[in-house]
């Protein structure tokens, strides 16, 4: 089913997926159920930012594309599986999400989003000299989804995946911007794509409703204008609490075998309470540090695009940071948590129809498994 054109996201069908993880990421890290959120940030030097700061000017966004499967799964559909529709809305704000069809892969969604982005950038595909795909649900363990996508798009360039879950797109965007700034490429295709429906246990009534599938892509190019680009960014991770959001089986730590292939260990495990507490604190601190680094206030930010994980996290950021609600974009209600696709899906909608003007500043913030985050302030 096609999504309404007012949202600028196309939807069709097309074809495979996989994910990996690790149960115990730190020998002495906090266990599930402990107040791990309160322990994080302890490794930063006193008075130092929570993550690594940076700036990349002289880069600009070109075309943006997005794609979601046509298979829409409503809360009412999940109620038939035993999920509580009212609880889903009350605790998350999600009304529906899109799930990939059988045979459809992360690369298929990424391909459709990438075609749109390249077409809208009006750049010859032959000019694209870097491809980065952010995903934790690759088509195969190897080769990378980026290499598959490069072949399908007919590109001639380096191609690689970045695995940073919900922070992945910002990690990929910052990586591409720095490579461009170093003079090693001029046009980068940056993609965020995940099929989270393949990683969630259908019997987990609290986690299964939260996630959806999707892909978004942007073309990032070099510019002679030194006033535009990433005014400030912060990348960070706190791996000591990686256990709070992980897929235990499927990697080299715990390979899939006859004893665990049918168990919940092959699905995403989430300590929801502690992840929520961590995210609320992290979003507030990281955004404050990025704004301070850029010497800007919340009133000087025109667009706020946070990772679409939970409405209560987004509402908390609006309240605590003082952003005008109309500047904070949300499509969580229609797509759920799409991991690395979350921010580029939001960008595709927010940047459409001339809503983002030259000179506007857009704040991006992705956060999740790792635990990892990326916050970036983009000047158009």
Question: Could you characterize what this model shows?
Answer:
This protein has 380 residues and is an alpha+beta fold. Helices cover 26% and strands 22% of the residues. The chain is built from nine helices and 14 strands. It has helices at residues 75-79, 85-92, 106-121, 145-153, 168-181, 272-293, 311-321, 332-335, 342-350; strands spanning 52-57, 59-67, 72-74, 96-98, 130-134, 159-162, 187-195, 213-222, 229-237, 245-246, 269-270, 303-306, 361-368, 372-379. The chain has a five-stranded mixed beta sheet, sandwiched between helices. Strands 2-8-7-5-6 form a five-stranded mixed beta sheet, with helices on both faces. The chain has a two-stranded antiparallel ribbon with strand order 3-4. β5, α4 and β6 (159-162) form a beta-alpha-beta unit. α3 (106-121) packs across α4 and α6 runs parallel beside α7. The longest helix has 22 residues, at 272-293. The two termini are 33 Å apart. The model is unreliable at 1-8 and 11-34 (pLDDT under 50).
């Amino acid at each position: 089913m096609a999504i309404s054109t007012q949202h600028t996201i196309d939807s069709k069908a097309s074809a495979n997926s996989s994910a990996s993880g690790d149960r115990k990421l730190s020998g002495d890290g906090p266990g599930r159920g402990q107040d791990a959120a309160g322990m994080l940030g302890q490794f930063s030097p006193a008075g130092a930012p929570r993550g690594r700061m940076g700036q990349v000017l002289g880069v600009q966004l070109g075309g943006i594309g997005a794609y979601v499967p046509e298979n829409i799964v409503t809360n009412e559909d999940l109620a038939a599986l035993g999920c509580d529709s009212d609880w889903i809305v009350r605790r998350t704000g999600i009304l529906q999400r899109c799930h990939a069809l059988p045979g459809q892969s992360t690369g298929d969604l990424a391909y459709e989003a990438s075609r749109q982005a390249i077409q809208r950038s009006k750049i010859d595909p032959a000019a694209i000299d870097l491809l980065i795909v952010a995903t934790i649900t690759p088509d195969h363990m190897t080769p990378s989804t980026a290499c598959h996508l490069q072949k399908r798009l007919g590109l001639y360039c380096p191609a690689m995946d970045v695995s940073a879950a919900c922070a992945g797109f910002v990690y990929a965007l910052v990586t591409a911007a720095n490579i461009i700034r170093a003079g090693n490429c001029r046009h980068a295709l940056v993609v965020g794509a995940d099929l989270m429906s393949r990683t969630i246990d259908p019997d987990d009534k609290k986690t299964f409703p939260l996630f959806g599938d999707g892909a978004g892509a942007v073309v990032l190019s070099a510019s002679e204008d030194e006033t535009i680009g990433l005014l400030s960014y912060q990348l960070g991770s706190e791996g000591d609490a990686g256990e709070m959001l992980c897929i235990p089986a499927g990697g080299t730590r715990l390979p899939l075998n006859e004893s665990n292939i049918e168990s919940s260990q092959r699905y995403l495990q989430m300590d929801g309470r502690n992840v929520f507490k961590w995210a609320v604190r992290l979003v507030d601190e990281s955004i404050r540090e990025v704004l301070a680094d850029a010497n800007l206030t919340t009133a000087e930010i025109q667009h706020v695009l946070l990772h679409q994980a939970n409405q209560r996290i987004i509402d908390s950021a609006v309240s605590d940071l003082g952003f005008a609600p109309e500047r904070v974009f949300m499509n969580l209600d229609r797509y759920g948590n799409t991991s690395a696709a979350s921010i580029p899906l939001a960008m595709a909608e927010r940047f459409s129809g001339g809503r983002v003007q030259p000179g506007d500043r857009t704040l991006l913030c992705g956060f999740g498994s790792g635990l990892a985050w990326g916050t970036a302030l983009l000047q158009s």
